[in-house]
Amino acid sequence: MSNFDCKNKFKPDTEGTYIKSFKEYQSLHKKSIEDPQAFWYEKAHEFLNWDKSFTKVSSGNLKYGNVKYFEDGYLSVYQNCVLRHKEANPNGIALIYEADNPEEARSVTWLELSQQVQLYARVLKQMGVKKGDVVTIYMSTSPEAIYAMFACSYIGAVHSVIFGGFSSDAIKARVLDSKSEVIFTQNFTKRRGRTIPMKTTINKAIEGIDFVRKVLVYGRVKNIKEEINMKPNRDILLESLLEEFQEGGKYENVYANLQPMSMNAEDPLFLLYTSGSTGKPKALIHTTGGYLLNAALTHKTVFDIRKGDRFGCVADIGWITGHTYIVYAPMLNGVSTVLFESTPDYPSITRYWEVIDKWGLTQFYTSPTAVRFVMSCGTDPLKDFSLKSLRVIGSVGEPIGVEAWNWYFKNVGKSRCYLVDTYWMTESGAIMISAIPGATTLKRGSATLPLFGISPQLLVKNGGSKSIELSMQKKQRKFSEIAENDQSGILTIKGHWPSITRTILGNHKRYLETYLSPYPGYFLTGDSAYRDMDGYYFIKGRIDDVINVCAHRFGTSELESTLTLHPKAVEVAVVGMPHKIKGEAIFVFCVLKDKHTEEMVIKNELKSLLQTSISKIASPEHIVIVDSLPKTRSGKIMRRILKKIVRKNYEVATYGDLSTLLNPDSVDSIVSNVKKIL
Ligand code: WTA
User: Fold this and answer.
1) Ranges for the Acetyl-coenzyme A synthetase N-terminal domain (predicted)?
2) Which of 3, 276, 293, 370 has the fewest CB atoms nearer than 10 Å to its CB?
3) Model-level ipTM above the cut of 0.95
């Protein structure tokens, strides 16, 4: 692995940098692991205002998955994220909305943000939403979505934001699972200049779900004639409702004194669905105090946040990256945040660079898939932009790789910005492994070192001769911690940290089985990693059946069970294949009931099945029709063989032991089919 020292070029402003040296990082990290009670006590008071302070920092353990932080403390999300900044700087910019059409871009001040959140909160109150109720938000990345999110915690409700690109089936499953009675949506959205329906998608999703009482519809796209089919008594136009709470309106005084809810630190703040290796997407629950604290602390540390910064995370609010680093962290730290509704190539391939220069962004945070996309367009689009306001550029979602790292560092960071490759996941709530500007010596392609409270451990199954055997409970899997460097292993986190997800909604057993029971005492990330001679982590990718397409997670079984809904598909196997831009792409193998079926037709039908049932991002790269799939005698599909084939390894002799295969002949025929298309 190539070392790369960028510390000298970065020349951090040590006055402004939160962590001023590597030594400081090391000693703080040590403290956070060895004396977490003292460490988090101090940080909780440094970053958050408490209505009632806590007496206990943390309790519980990974065995029962009953971890709690600041459990007798109370705080208001609105006070911490909005009110205190409105009071200090009412006319400062809180939100920068880069609408799909750049001409519709606008900014929102802290004062306006606070007024709107209060209005939205009053609307929710009027709709009868109570503490703990789940409110679904199906909206594009826009100020209105942020008002809706903050309005939830204002009255103690729990938001469930559903990615705006999800189909009605995907929404339906989430609304049913979360039993959400109230939904925020918008009439349409804009994507690359096209008008895309949202309300009618919701209509389809909640057809027959009687417990949905109210659908509040924001008129995102004005002057449009297309019908959105408002159902009487259930669907309400948000703007007309909001008017009733304003001056002269019906409810002007009714809720005028509605105070923000003082939340218990362990009250759920939101739930967010994510794909796992088995079954349906699951709702992970994040609670208030610990999540907010680690959001603020990691943001400040990793992005070197300073007063007056303008933070540009170009993700969608429907993902954890959006929740933590578009919404909560920048708002807690009181800096402007960008709401980017568009794509990197609309209206032209210079869009990102225009946004950075136009607003003077100080940080820019995106995914490797986006970096590879802009990289594929060359450096010409960058030539008219100085990007001089940037100090830190970040990457998240999948391994960035050396080539994209170099390109991003040189052409966007101009070889002077710090490039932070941030490793984390929906479950962790906040970044776990990342460089710290000015403190960490960077290495290309490495997420580098753990943040505070995070103790990564590489594990190996069945013990390794050189490793320390851990005392194991009976019947549990045998494993060891890999103590040495220059080793790869299963990436886990030892112990807990404040923003760890507390449970899966309605299924604590699945939570324990997925994350905590496989290696007692450790949180299982689902990734493997290499730790180099200096203790730096290089994330290698998922070791479970999760495919990471454009930094979006899809479970293999979720994709397969959707595809087998097709009446003509007998059997389906899905594997991830490396893809130049997307990181990974979906490769489908399908066995048909009737061999005489028109292949093109069925391939299109399978493709649209994934698009409509899950999301457009789940669109497969290749579909190959095969006679049979390689299976073990016990009937298990041998995906490891398929994975080799889609990686263009056609040497059957290198596939390992095939003696347990029921149908070894299937392999040759699959190889020849795949060779034709790759
Ligand atoms: C992957 C996104 C390598 C990883 C915040 C993880 C990464 C999954 C990185 C979580 C990174 C995320 N380097 N891989 N810097 N960041 N991943 O829940 O496989 O959407 O398990 O959270 O993305 O994806 P999720």
Assistant:
1) 25-81
2) 3
3) yes
Q: What is the pLDDT of residues 9-53, one digit of tens each?
A: 555 555 668 999 999 999 999 999 999 999 999 999 999 999 999
| pLDDT tens by residue, 188-226 | 999 999 999 999 999 999 999 999 999 999 999 999 989
If you take atom 5 of ligand 1, which residue's CA is the nearest one?
425
Q: Which residues contact 524 (CB under 8 A, 6 or more apart)?
A: 490, 492, 514, 515, 516, 518
Q: Lowest-confidence range among 39-53, 473-487, 508-522?
A: 473-487
Task: Name the residue of 425, 426, 448, 454 whose CB sits within 8 Å of the most ligand 1 atoms, as the mutation to test its pocket.
Answer: 425
- How long a stretch of residues is the chain? 678
Q: What is the DSSP letter of 166?
A: B
Peptide bond before residue 567 is cis, with ω within 30 degrees of 0: no
Distance CA 212, CA 626 (A): 43
More confident residue, 387 or 639: 387
Radius of gyration of the chain (CA): 25
Tokens 């939570």 sit on residue: 511
Closest ligand 1 atom to Cα of 433: 15
Rounded to 5°, angle at Cα 359 from 356 and 363 = 50
> Does residue 397 line the site of ligand 1, with CB under 6 A?
yes
CB 188 near ligand 1, within 6 Å: no
As given in the structure block, the two tokens for residue 356 are: 């950075």
Residue 65 φ/ψ, nearest 5 degrees: 60, 45
Quick: pLDDT tens for 625-640: 999 999 877 677 888 8
CA distance 361 to 305: 12
Looking at the DSSP bridge assignments, the partners of residue 93 are 109
Q: Using the Cα atoms of residue 216, residue 221, residue 225 and residue 228 in order, give the sign of their dihedral.
A: negative
What is the SS3 assignment for 633?
coil
What global pTM score does this model have? 0.91
434 Cα: distance to centroid of ligand 1 (angstroms): 12
Q: How far is the CA of 431 from the centre of ligand 1 (A)?
A: 10
Looking up tokens 């979006």, which residue turns up? 552
Whose structure tokens read 């353990």? 61
Q: Cα of 551 to ligand 1 centre, how many Å? A: 7
Neighbours of 643 (CB within 10 A): 14
Count Cβ atoms below 10 Å from residue 589 Cβ, excluding itself: 28
490 strand-pairing partners: 459, 528
Residue of 313, 398, 549 to test ligand 1 pocket, by largest number of atoms within 8 Å of CB: 398
| Distance of CA 276 from the midpoint of ligand 1 (Å) | 13
Q: Are 320 and 272 in contact (CB under 8 A)?
A: yes
- Which atom of ligand 1 is nearest the CA belonging to 434? 15
* DSSP structure class, residue 656: -
What is the full DSSP assignment across 464-507? -TTSEEPP--TTSPPEEE--SSSEEEEEEEES--TTS--EETT-
Are 354 and 102 in contact, with CB atoms under 8 Å apart?
yes
- Evaluate the CA torsion angle 66, 70, 74, 80 in order and state its sign: negative
CA-to-CA distance for 16 and 40, rounded, in angstroms? Answer: 22
> Which residue's entry shows tokens 């995906």?
639
